[in-house]
């Protein structure tokens, strides 16, 4: 589909790209670049401080996929060098720097997961590491870069301004980060740079630095930040409010069914290609059908090696669902999604799933054929410590074979396999090992 761009006018291509975008700076420059009729170089910089990607990352990556479908080339720049600085964007304190080896190890997983969204054909995708040009950058070039902005301009950035006013230390090396990211744009002659709203300042610095090096400035393409499952903070693995791109179908389905109702409009608009009237119809139908359609769409899409170009009604109906049923046709759909949905429904009704992970308890852990309940849950991996197990028992948060555990000093016999449960949906089957 790399020739899609030749079938769309520049104005139609811009209208397609504009959907879901928070800000395009400046939009008229993007239209002018599209009118040039050449493949654009669309850049995304990524500091792989963590190896796992989630649906928050997918918002930007899916927009890059749209550029690819229009015939443009995306360049994923792994910040193996800038990762040693640590991106301060949106942070209240300096991010601990990583070693070059740590960033490259994380990058391998990052690129593999991004490949679920981005097409990999050489004319549509390029992978670069910014150590290629930053590691050998002469000090005089660093001086030249930093001379392009004043300290006052740097302190206009919201996170720096807040930290300065609150007396939180700002290291000088953090000021270098926007310049390093901007130099990436110079190195690849970027036409467009993608990023979330928290990257606005950095992307605008890229425009100024490109001008200083005699290049046409890049267009800054900013996407909204996806809030996580807590409904308060942007999606982040460190906040445990995330939905991973490579999570098992049953986990992804469960998490999507728990998206706060207030976030359903943004999830449907940012993570799918449903038309506005289709989103409106789902929202009118209520949160339950809207959740089910969202969960089915995304669970099915991300279970594939590469997601489809469009996650829309046609994709949904191609899975075997009837759009008009609004989530009631539970016997339809791919096997993995059907099983995930059945598991979710069974747990929601207070039942126990059929397929559970199993933990074998060594006989040496038992005394006179019994084991303390707190120890049992900790060995099963459902609680980190005995103290946490006892706290949860006090809150009726642990169950054995569906029955709440009331006594934190209970001694449990393992004469047969038992199902341990934490909360609503964490289950493990335990059995006694061979003596």
Automatic annotation (TrEMBL):
Cellular component terms per the entry's GO annotation: cytosol
SUPFAM superfamilies reported in the protein's UniProt record: Alpha-L RNA-binding motif, Nucleotidylyl transferase
UniProt xrefs under InterPro entries: aa-tRNA-synth_Ic, Rossmann-like_a/b/a_fold, S4_RNA-bd_sf, Tyr-tRNA-ligase, Tyr-tRNA-ligase_bac-type, Tyr-tRNA-ligase_bac_2
Lineage: superkingdom: Bacteria
Keyword Hydrolase assigned: no
This enzyme's EC code(s): 6.1.1.1
PROSITE patterns (UniProt xref): S4 (PS50889)
Motif annotated as 'KMSKS' region, chain positions: 234-238
Transmembrane segments: none
Subcellular location: Cytoplasm
Catalysed reaction equations from the record: tRNA(Tyr) + L-tyrosine + ATP = L-tyrosyl-tRNA(Tyr) + AMP + diphosphate + H(+)
GO molecular function: ATP binding; RNA binding; tyrosine-tRNA ligase activity
Keywords linked to the UniProt accession: Aminoacyl-tRNA synthetase, ATP-binding, Cytoplasm, Ligase, Nucleotide-binding, Protein biosynthesis, RNA-binding
Principal location: cytoplasm
Motif 'HIGH' region location, chain numbering: 48-57
Subunit structure and binding partners: Homodimer.
Family according to the record: Belongs to the class-I aminoacyl-tRNA synthetase family. TyrS type 2 subfamily.
Name the record gives this protein: Tyrosine--tRNA ligase
């Amino acid at each position: 589909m790399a020739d899609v761009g030749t079938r769309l006018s520049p104005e139609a291509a811009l209208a397609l790209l504009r959907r879901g975008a928070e800000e395009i700076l400046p939009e008229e420059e993007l239209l002018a670049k599209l009118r040039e009729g050449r493949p654009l170089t669309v850049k995304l910089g990524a500091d792989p401080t963590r190896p796992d990607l989630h649906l928050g990352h997918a918002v930007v990556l899916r927009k890059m996929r749209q550029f690819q479908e229009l015939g443009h080339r995306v360049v994923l720049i792994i910040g193996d060098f800038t990762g040693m600085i640590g991106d301060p964007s949106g942070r209240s304190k300096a991010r601990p720097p990583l070693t070059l080896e740590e960033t490259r190890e994380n990058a391998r997983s990052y690129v593999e997961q991004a490949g679920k969204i981005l097409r990999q054909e050489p004319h549509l995708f390029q992978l670069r590491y910014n150590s290629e040009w930053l590691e050998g950058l002469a000090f005089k070039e660093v001086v030249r870069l930093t001379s392009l902005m004043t300290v006052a301009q740097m302190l206009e950035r919201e996170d720096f301004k807040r930290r300065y006013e609150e007396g939180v230390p700002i290291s000088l090396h953090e000021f270098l980060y926007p310049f390093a990211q901007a130099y990436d744009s110079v190195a690849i002659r970027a036409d467009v740079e993608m990023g979330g709203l928290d990257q606005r300042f950095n992307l605008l610095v890229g425009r100024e630095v490109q001008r200083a090096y005699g290049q046409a400035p890049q267009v800054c393409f900013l996407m909204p930040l996806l809030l996580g499952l807590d409904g308060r903070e942007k999606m982040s693995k460190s906040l445990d409010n995330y939905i991973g791109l490579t999570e098992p179908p049953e986990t992804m389905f469960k998490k999507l069914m728990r998206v706060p109702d207030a976030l359903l409009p943004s999830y449907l608009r940012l993570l799918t290609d449903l038309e506005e009237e289709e989103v409106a119809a789902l929202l009118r139908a209520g949160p339950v059908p809207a959740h089910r359609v969202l969960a089915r769409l995304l669970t099915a899409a991300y279970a594939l090696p590469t997601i489809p170009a469009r996650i829309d009604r046609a994709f949904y109906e191609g899975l075997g669902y009837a759009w008009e049923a609004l989530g009631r046709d539970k016997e339809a759909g791919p096997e993995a999604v059907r099983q995930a949905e059945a598991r979710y429904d069974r747990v929601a009704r207070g039942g126990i799933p059929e397929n559970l992970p199993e933990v074998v308890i060594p006989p040496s852990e038992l005394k006179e054929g019994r084991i303390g309940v707190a120890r049992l849950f900790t060995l099963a991996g459902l609680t980190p410590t005995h103290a946490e197990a006892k706290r949860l028992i006090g809150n009726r948060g642990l169950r054995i074979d569906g029955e709440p555990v009331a006594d934190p000093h209970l001694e449990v016999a393992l004469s047969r396999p038992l199902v341990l449960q934490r909360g609503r949906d964490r289950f493990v089957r335990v059995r006694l090992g061979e003596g």
